[in-house]
Amino acid sequence: MAANKSAKKDKPSWRHHNLTTAGPVDDYLYSMLPKRDEVLVEMEDYASEHDVPIVGPAVARVLQQLALTINAQSVFELGSAIGYSTMWWAQAVGEKGRVVYTDGDPKNAARARGYFERAGVSKRITIHTGDALEFLSEQKQQYDVIFNDIDKEDYPRVLRLVSPRLRKGGLFITDNVLWSGRVAEKNPKDARTKAILEFNRLLYNSVDFYTTILPIRDGLAVALKK
Ligand SMILES: C[S@@+](CC[C@H](N)C(=O)[O-])C[C@H]1O[C@@H](n2cnc3c(N)ncnc32)[C@H](O)[C@@H]1O
After folding, report:
1. Is 145:69 a contact under the CB 8 Å cutoff?
2. What are phi and psi of 88, to 5 degrees?
């Protein structure tokens, strides 16, 4: 158990090693990341020990940087788990900004709430427990950022809901679009791989978005609303 824990500390489960970069290059990228605050580090350790599939610090930094670039004040997140990516959004939007956390699992939401309170960002975050797609479909306002990290079979459905709920110049960002490299398989049978392939095709061909997949970790699709 102790050996397993220290192996996970050396190679956290959220790293998705060497998908598009060689191992040493990947190590270098992670070694360059500035130290995170105490609560974020605790969340990273918890995620690695319990195999919670968080984006991890390299991708989280991209998310925060993108939010800062467009001066985002409102973020809607689909699939928040223990609230790791939510925390990075909350830091990006600042005291006056708002972030919507969504997750289907109330235990995740309870754990996330504890982290948000300890980090002093809970006032910026609305926690919604239930189906993220349903909640998004009820939204009347337009957001600056919509972040998609839910079950992969639902990605095409998410895309259909996003455009009216995102402001012009806003960002629709989606994690895991390279799906551990399975998007490059010749005849994928797995439903999740097929859904991601459909999603990527629809997103790149959408007249509403200008899209690039950043090959960092498991692939991050960044789509600018035209
Ligand atoms: C990959 S994890 C999210 C990780 C989080 N974005 C982070 O990086 O810290 C996906 C989460 O989405 C939740 N989920 C999946 N489908 C959902 C849905 N339709 N509605 C709400 N939550 C969903 C799961 O419970 C899971 O906790």
Report:
1. no
2. -70, -40
Distance 191 CA to ligand 1 centre (A): 18
Ligand 1 midpoint to CA 132 (Å): 9
Q: Is 131 in the pocket of ligand 1 (CB under 6 A)?
A: yes
**Which atom of ligand 1 is the closest one to the Cα of 86?**
9
185 Rama sector, left if φ>0, alpha if ψ -120 to 50, beta otherwise? beta
Q: What is the pTM of this model?
A: 0.94
Residue 44 beta carbon below 6 angstroms from any ligand 1 atom? no
User: Cα separation of 69 and 129, whole Å?
Assistant: 29
Sheet bearing 166-175, strands edge to edge: 125-129, 98-103, 74-78, 143-148, 166-175, 220-225, 209-214
pLDDT tens digits, 57-116: 999 999 999 999 999 999 999 999 999 999 999 999 999 999 999 999 999 999 999 999
CA-to-CA separations, 30 to 19, 25, 90, 138, 183, in angstroms, rounded: 14, 9, 22, 38, 24
Residue 185 CA to ligand 1 center (angstroms) comes to: 25
Closest-lying ligand 1 atom to the alpha carbon of residue 83: 9
Closest CA to 154 of 106, 109, 199: 199
